[in-house]
Specification:
The complex is a heterodimer. Chain A is built from twelve helices and no strands. By secondary structure, chain A is an all-alpha fold. In chain A, helix 1 packs across helix 9. Chain B has a domain of about 70 residues. The relative contact order of chain B is 0.07. Classes of the chains: A mainly alpha, B mainly alpha.
């Protein structure tokens, strides 16, 4: 258990550094959007879900209401529903204990802890998530302090997609031809929905491409 | 106040969404079809996240410097470059293209 936790913590290093840069830009963006430095750091510490944080702050910055900001965050996070359903069977304990363990899921910890048989390496997931969490909160604090940095000029907005691309390519390397087909279908579905649905919905619908797995092979 | 309310509600919503699946489905054997879907969930979700964050700004499709930066990172990753340098290269390439 402790061994796999340490293993996950170590394996998180490159992802954690990337998320340091990402949360740095979150800190800068949040302060520019009118959050106090404390609010920005608290948000990263208690929400710990990057895409939802960016989406909701973006809406507040554009003058949107609390309801719209929270709805955008919920949609952005909706992918954690199928991810949580996938993880559930690998978690021991009562309902509350499992729900608490589910909080450690972030995209990279989830993808890397997934084993070839569809179950999850639990201590590895926790270790990876711990490394990410420390960097996520630290990076936000640094971004707040470095306020006034133009994160677009530094190209920091390319970090988020590049980070997911790295995870995707890793996933496709260990996957089959079906994984590649599903990835292409997911990307195509999402792209087609972007102009016609609220943010977050394209990604949720794209997860439906995985249902081809129901077919017997 | 508006900001703190938003933060509290976003935290609550995130907690609920992340906790729901594990609370409902716990500690059990997986049917084979379930495992196959789970394994395919990762490529579907990740590909959708990449494309919506690299080729769109909110509800608009937009190919920009960041799209090129991410594509460059993709080439590096396919050539065996590891995560961190590839991610940094995406940012540097994007920043350089914006300077032009």
């Amino acid at each position: 258990m402790a061994e796999r936790f340490r293993e996950g913590f170590r394996a998180s290093a490159p992802y954690a550094v990337a998320s340091l840069l990402l949360s740095f830009s979150f800190g800068a963006v949040a302060v520019a959007a009118g959050l106090s430095p404390l609010a920005a750091v608290v948000m990263s510490a208690i929400v710990y879900a990057g895409s939802a944080q960016f989406a909701s702050i973006g809406i507040l910055a554009a003058g949107g209401g609390v309801g719209a900001a929270v709805a955008a965050a919920a949609l952005m996070n909706s992918r954690f529903l199928p991810m949580g359903v996938a993880l559930g069977p690998s978690l021991p304990g009562g309902r509350l204990k499992r729900a608490l363990q589910g909080q450690t899921v972030v995209d990279s910890s989830w993808a890397l802890a997934l084993r070839e048989d569809g179950t999850f390496d639990r201590p590895f997931l926790f270790g990876h998530s711990a490394g990410q969490y420390v960097c996520w909160v630290t990076g936000t604090a640094l971004g707040v302090l470095g306020g006034g940095v133009d994160s677009r000029a530094l190209g920091l907005d390319a970090i988020f997609p590049a980070f997911f691309l790295a995870l995707l390519i890793g996933e496709l390397r260990k996957g089959t031809r079906t994984s590649l087909g599903v990835a292409l279908a997911g990307a195509g579905l999402a792209l087609a929905l972007v102009p016609v649905t609220p943010v977050g919905v394209p990604v949720l619908v794209a997860s439906g491409a995985a249902l081809v797995g129901l077919r017997r092979t | 106040m508006r900001i703190w309310t938003t933060i509290a509600l976003v935290a609550l919503v995130t907690f609920t969404i992340k906790g729901l699946g594990p609370a409902v489905l716990g500690d059990r054997e997986l049917p084979a079809a379930f495992s196959r879907v789970v394994l395919l969930l990762a490529p579907a979700l990740l590909a959708a996240l990449v494309i919506t964050s690299a080729a769109a700004d909110g509800p608009e499709l937009r190919i920009g410097a960041d799209t090129a930066g991410v594509a460059f990172a993709g080439l590096l990753l396919l050539r065996g470059v590891t995560v961190l340098p590839a991610v940094l290269a995406a940012a540097v390439m994007t920043a350089l293209l914006r300077l032009l």
